[in-house]
Amino acid sequence: MCRWMAYSGEPILAEDLLFRPEHSLIDQSLHSRLGATTTNGDGFGVGWYGIGAEPAVYKSIEPAWNDRNLREIAGQVRTPMLLAHVRASTGTAVQRSNCHPFRHGRWLWVHNGALRGFHETRRDLLAAVEPALFAEIEGSTDTETLFYLALTFGLVDDPFGAVARAVGFVEDVGHAYGVDHPVQMTVATTNGEFLWVFRYSSERQSRSLFFSTELSALRALHPEVEVLRELGSETRFVVSEPLRDLSGAWNEVPESSAGVVGAGADAIRSFEPIAPG
C-alpha cells in the first residue's frame, strides 16, 4: 500500500531524514521490506514546519526516487517536525491532490492502509463531513475522507477521541454495506507541536509500525554509531519500516494502540473505535 515516516525533535535537515538512512523512505519507495507492495511509486509528499503559521507541503506524482526537486529542497529545509509519505494507490487516481500528507490549517495527516468498500460507502462517509470543511477536500482518496471525518469529530481539540469516533463511524457505515473489515490503518497526524500516531485494523492485523528507542538509551547501546551523536536528545521517529538495522533501535507499536510524541508527552495507550450514538 504505502510507507510513511514521522520525525519530531530538534531542527534537522530534511535530507538527513529522507535520504541519509540506509533504508530511508526513498529506498522504501523502491524496496519496501514489510509493506503490502514492494514498490511505492504512485507519488509522494513531504510536510514540514518552519517559520510560517502553517506547515509547508511538497507533493508530486513522480516516484520519490526520481524527483530531483525533492533532493534540492531537502538539502535546504531544516525542521523540528516532518511527515513524509510514499504512495502505492489502492484504486484512486494518481494525481497530486491524492498524495499525502493532507493539510488543514496547522494540521498534517498521513495514512497507510485502506477503507475497504470505499467505492460503495464514499457518499455516506463524505455526507458526514462538516459542511464548512467539505469544500476543502480536493482529492478522491479514502485517506483524505478519513482526515476530514476526524476533523469533523473534533481532531483539533481531542485527537485520540476524534480518530476513535471517525474510525467507529467508518466501521458502522461499512458494516451497513456488508463490509466485514472496513478499516486498515496506520496514521500519523500533527499540529507541529505534538505528533499523534495510530495503529488499528478491524480484523486486528494492522500494517507494520515502529517507534524509535529513547536516544540516550540507544547511545549507551551503540556508542560506536556516529550518527546517534549528531541527533538531538528529543529525537523521535515513527516509521512504517525501520530506517536502519540497529539492534535495540526500534520497537513495534502494539496492535490496536495510539501514541503521542512531544516535549514531556511520550505515551502509548490502547485504541478502540467509538461507535456512533
From TrEMBL:
InterPro entries: EgtC-like, Gamma-glu_amide_hydrolase, GATase_2_dom, Ntn_hydrolases_N. This is Class II glutamine amidotransferase. SUPFAM superfamilies: N-terminal nucleophile aminohydrolases (Ntn hydrolases) (SSF56235). Keywords: Glutamine amidotransferase. Gene3D superfamilies: Glutamine Phosphoribosylpyrophosphate, subunit 1, domain 1. Residues 2-242 form the Glutamine amidotransferase type-2 domain. It comes from Nocardia rhizosphaerihabitans.
